[in-house]
Amino acid sequence: MKELHTRQVATDLVGDIEPAKYSGYQIPKQFIATFYIIDNDNVKVTKANAKSFYTWKVKLFIRVTEKETVEVVKTEIYGASVYKGHTVFTTKEDNPFSYGTVQARHYTALRDNRPRLVSVAVQVALQSHKFTKKTDGTYQVTIGDNVSIDGKELERINRAVTENSYAKLDDAFYKRVAEIYKQAVLNGDRPNNVLMLELNKERKTVQGYTKVCRARGYLLPAKEKGKASPVKKPKTTTKGKTKK
To answer: Domain locations in the chain?
Structure first.
């Protein structure tokens, strides 16, 4: 597994200002974790050359459930561009065509490092969102505030998130696989490729998942491959004449 060199990891709360409980701490119920990663393409990164590289970007859309599970509901990859820092709020829409081409190495890096990225996202979110309950029962949050968590606690959280990044093959899991598959079809993407990326699994594994989904009725049965025509074509000689 190749090391990723990040310039910045930022987490932004999405939706209602209300915390979820995770491992004894408060965390946004829904948030987006943005990773700004140096696009060094196997070149050694040093303090001297770090600024010379472009930066590619990954966004993880994360939901934390009442059962304290961390779910990545969407993943976005952006090609390399000049690093300009993280924008917390803007009315200007991000132009996707201002980025470079997403390379195969970007998909590979995300697949190989996905559990670690999810863990880092959770740790950053825990330490950068401080919730305060108001008298009316609602919450306010201080974005970017530093919530102090010691190293041993962070390592415990890291283990918990990493271990839970591997899916439990229950009914809810297969329903989620079916949702990802259907959305990929609607988007014009190759469903198995999207599943490989989202679930950090090999092709044969995700094909097995979709087979179970079809058996449980969450996906339509696969189309049968066309059968060979029963009509026999006449044989031809080397001179092009047909034999009866």
So the answer is: 6-164, 171-215
Helix/strand/coil for 194: helix
Predicted TM-score of the model (pTM): 0.69
Q: In what order do the strands lie in the sheet with 55-64?
A: 6-13, 30-38, 55-64, 70-81
Can you tell me which residue has the tokens 């996905």? Answer: 114
Grouped pLDDT means (10 residues each) for the chain, 244 residues: 86 92 94 97 94 97 90 94 88 88 93 90 94 92 83 90 69 86 93 84 89 93 57 53 52
Strand ranges for the chain from DSSP E:
6-13, 19-22, 25-28, 30-38, 55-64, 70-81, 129-133, 139-143, 235-236, 242-243
